[in-house]
């Protein structure tokens, strides 16, 4: 099987919400409300293309928030066209909000 590279991008964004955070209105800064990081993974060509989105509501209370989120990619049981990339394993996304 041919190996290739897949870019994985994680984006953290502060968005306005009608949901209160500890009985306070959610505020969004004018600058620095979006942060992203992209890393490359070496993968084998098989499986199907996928995109996953995860959302978390964080209430930092003016402090730095450190959060770890494990993400599991599809396993070998998914078969698909040879041109797609396949990622198997576990990944941990670590985010820090200030």
From TrEMBL:
One GO biological process term: nervous system development
InterPro entries named in the record: Ig-like_fold (IPR013783), Ig_E-set (IPR014756)
SUPFAM superfamilies: E set domains (SSF81296)
Gene3D superfamilies, per the entry: Immunoglobulins
Protein name in UniProt: Alpha-2-macroglobulin-P
Species for this entry: Liparis tanakae (Tanaka's snailfish)
